[in-house]
Write a structure and sequence with these properties.
Layout lengths: L16 E3 L10 H6 L3 E7 L6 E7 L5 E7 L5 E3 L19 E6 L2 E7 L6 E5 L7 E2 L6 E9 L4 E8 L8 H4 L7 E7 L10 E4 L4 E7 L5 E7 L10 E7 L5 E9 L5 E6 L5 E5 L6 E6 L2 E4 L25 E4 L2 E8 L2 E14 L3 E11 L5 E7 L3 E8 L2 E9 L5 E6 L14 E6 L5 E7 L6 E3 L8 E5 L13 H7 L4 E6 L8 H4 L9 H15 L8 E6 L1 H12 L5 E5 L5 H6 L8 H5 L7 H7 L12 E6 L7 H13 L4 E6 L9 H19 L13
Parallel strand pairs: 1-32, 33-34, 33-35, 35-36, 36-37, 37-38
Antiparallel strand pairs: 2-3, 3-4, 4-5, 6-7, 7-8, 8-9, 10-11, 11-12, 12-13, 14-15, 15-16, 16-17, 18-19, 19-20, 20-21, 22-23, 23-24, 24-25, 26-27, 27-28, 28-29, 30-31, 31-34
Helix pairs in contact: 5-6
Length: about 700
């Protein structure tokens, strides 16, 4: 339990003390944030439709992902014994690392173990140990699906067996890419099962989904240079008695159209999400006739989105339960849950009409993910500004929610929680952009002087094809409860605002995102909400690139923090993994044809323009943005005698999962900003040495 302000001998709870913004005492420590940084993902019901599984990434266990089982009697069981870690490295970002179902008549879990990337099986209901299914090698497995009719697994395979590591320093990792394909795996083999290719021919595959009768398979695919949200296609195929696929047919997607989450209904209807209209909308196919599931022309649902950028496998924004769909829909960055009853009218060969009844489900949540269907219920992750990401179950019969597991099991008085305001502000080209604005909030403190304004921290989400989250973020509240204002920017290129908004960044990465971040600052300064002389910017990965560009090419910011960020676009395009190896073709331009643009946009080539302090955080095992990116920037800045700090972590990849590193990062970043802004704190954290 966290200390209260009174426990610390500080200000009275009824008479707020006066202190400088940024120097307020907060009950939320970096250790609290680390304890509250459990990563929840991938809910899935067992074969009885009542037993629920989900994944927990635990910082206190070095970021190990633990598969948790909650049975119908609400008894909790941890499935994978330590040090087993349910995580796949497919696409480096992973996802879809486990599945559960009836195998040879028994409830069985299959999962990928991070250390060796082998598949394992584990029988439930008995004290069994995990048994290796595949051999140790250079295969990565994801998007696992159990084909119960044939006692086999279907999955996406990323095959690295043809890559010779000894050549990589000479020819570059991207000279030879792994091969991706759909495959089946026979789990009964004695630990050396081989992946049997089912289909190939595209650079990437995802969402292999079997119809309920096991006779048809849906899957999506895409090719370089596209990412799945740029252009992808949806296929169906017939599954033969021997398990082979035949009669592949493209049923949706294509040029300038993105597909997301195919899912079969029990009646053979194939549902999916498509942005053909300009927004990710829910569709249905019966007998190859495609229909809208809801009328998105109505004002209530105009310009809404049901899709997400597929950064990881296994994502879902809707679940099909009999003739109903529970779906999450995004409107300007905030999510709503819908209950849709569908009825199809027509007959095979002559076409269908979809009739629907749509109900908005009242809930305290503003964000939903990983929806999955059970027996008369739907599980999901849900949260809001005052509610951390939580495993939640919705009962269709009662219409009630039940919270099962929180990602942030801490108790914090609402008087210390800042609530976001959705702001729409003017930006370049006569357009507008969006952000969540969080004012400083701490019931024990007020500003030191009348008219004093708080320092501002600008957050840049990663991706850059992603979005700012409305979920309770203890790391963000760590700042607002100390007297910082925070603005989390949904710059052009973000998702949730339609395809045109998402494409604003095409050819303009490092330009549009920077303009939107700087214009968010100007808007808040103009509104009299923040001190324009004390503005810092922070971001990770692609957000780190925006940070470095903003610091280099503008004079709006006084300090910055780059978390595993990108400083050299050319180095990134030469030294990254297959999934993102052509990502920059659209964001910047084809390389090397656009070499001059890459150099013009890369902060590493313009350090003479950068003159404010920067702190860098980096995982030394990061394959997405390798350490050489941060190290090159640090070397260049130190050569100019610019105050620079570099903190690197052994054993961390892209994003930090270990509690001690989360604590170090948060405390070091705060101390760095306080030092730069000259804010004196009653209980200071020693700033890292420049």
């Amino acid at each position: 339990m966290m200390e209260s302000q009174a426990d610390r001998g500080g200000a009275s709870l009824t008479e707020p003390a006066r202190a400088a913004y940024g120097a307020w005492l907060s009950p939320l420590s970096a250790a609290d944030v680390a304890r509250a940084a459990i990563r929840l993902s991938q809910t899935m019901y067992g074969p009885d439709g009542k037993t629920l599984y989900w994944l927990e990434g635990r910082p206190q266990e070095g970021g190990r992902q633990v598969l948790v089982r909650l049975d119908e009697h609400r008894q909790v069981q941890e499935i994978n014994p330590a040090p087993m870690n349910v995580r796949t490295r497919a696409h480096e970002y992973g996802g879809g690392a486990f599945t559960v179902g009836l195998y040879q008549g028994r409830e069985t879990v299959f999962y990928s173990n991070f250390a060796d990337q082998r598949l394992y099986r584990q029988v439930l209901g008995e004290r069994s140990e995990p048994v290796a299914v595949t051999s140790a090698g250079r295969m990565r497995y994801s998007d696992l699906v159990l084909d119960q009719n044939r006692d086999r697994l279907l999955c996406v395979v990323e095959d690295h067996t043809g890559i010779d590591d000894s050549l990589l320093p000479e020819i570059g990792e991207m000279a030879v890419e792994p091969i991706n394909y759909l495959a089946s795996v026979e789990p009964g083999a004695g630990g050396d099962a081989e992946a049997m290719m089912l289909t190939c021919g595209y650079d990437f595959f995802a969402f292999p989904r079997l119809s309920h009768d096991g006779k048809r398979l849906a899957y999506m695919a895409w090719k370089h240079p596209n990412m799945p949200w740029d252009e992808s296609v949806l296929f169906t195929a017939e599954v033969g008695a021997d398990g082979s696929l035949a009669n592949h047919r493209k049923v949706a997607g294509g040029t300038d159209v993105s597909i997301f989450q195919p899912q079969w209904g029990k009646d053979g209807t194939l549902y999916f999400v498509s942005d053909e209209s300009g927004y990710w909308q829910l569709k249905a196919i019966r007998d190859f006739f495609t229909m809208d599931v809801i009328d998105v022309s109505t004002e209530k649902f105009k310009n809404c989105e049901f899709g997400l950028p597929m950064w990881v496998f296994g994502q879902s924004t809707y679940a099909v339960v009999d003739d109903e769909i529970i779906a999450a829909v995004n409107l300007r960055g905030l999510w709503t849950l819908l209950r849709i009853k569908v009825r199809f009218e027509g007959e095979d060969g002559l076409g269908y009409v979809c009739h629907q009844q749509v109900e908005v489900i009242s809930s305290p949540y503003s964000e939903f993910s990983y929806l999955t269907a059970g027996s008369g219920r739907v599980a999901m992750l849900a949260g809001a500004a005052g509610i951390a990401n939580t495993v939640v179950e919705y009962d269709l019969a009662t219409g009630q929610f039940q919270e099962l597991c929180s990602s942030a099991p801490l108790s914090l008085d609402s008087g210390y929680l800042s609530s976001p305001e959705v702001i729409e502000f003017p930006t370049s080209g006569g357009r507008t952009a969006f952000a969540f604005y969080y004012p400083p909030t701490n019931k024990d403190f007020q500003s030191q002087e009348s008219g004093q304004l708080p320092p501002l921290l600008v957050k840049c989400h990663g991706g850059p094809t992603g979005a700012a989250s409305s979920l309770l973020s203890p790391a963000l509240q760590y700042y607002t409860s100390r007297g910082f204002a925070v603005v989390d920017v949904n710059y052009g290129g973000s998702t949730g605002f339609g395809r045109a908004y998402r494409k604003r960044l095409n050819g303009n990465w490092g330009v549009v995102d920077v303009e939107d971040c700087t214009n968010a600052v100007k808007y808040l300064v103009g509104q009299g909400k923040v001190d324009g002389t004390r503005v810092a910017i922070t971001g990770g990965s692609a957000g780190g690139f925006t940070v470095l560009c903003a610091l280099t090419f503008t004079d709006v910011f006084k300090a910055g923090a780059s978390h595993y960020g990108i400083g050299d676009l050319e180095a990134l395009v030469r030294d990254t993994h297959k999934f993102e190896s052509r990502y920059l073709d659209n964001l910047v331009g084809p390389y090397p044809f656009s070499k001059q643009v890459y150099q013009a946009r890369s902060p590493i080539h313009h350090t003479e323009k950068l003159s404010c302090p920067v702190i860098f955080f980096q995982g030394l095992e990061d394959k997405v943005v390798p350490p050489n990116q941060a190290e090159a920037m640090v070397k260049a800045l130190k050569a100019k005698n610019i105050p620079t700090v570099y903190i690197a972590y052994e054993g961390e990849q892209h994003g930090f999962r270990k509690a001690e590193n989360i604590i170090c990062t948060l405390e070091s970043e705060l101390a760095f900003f306080l030092s730069v802004f000259g804010i004196k704190h009653e209980h200071p954290i020693a700033p890292p040495a420049f």
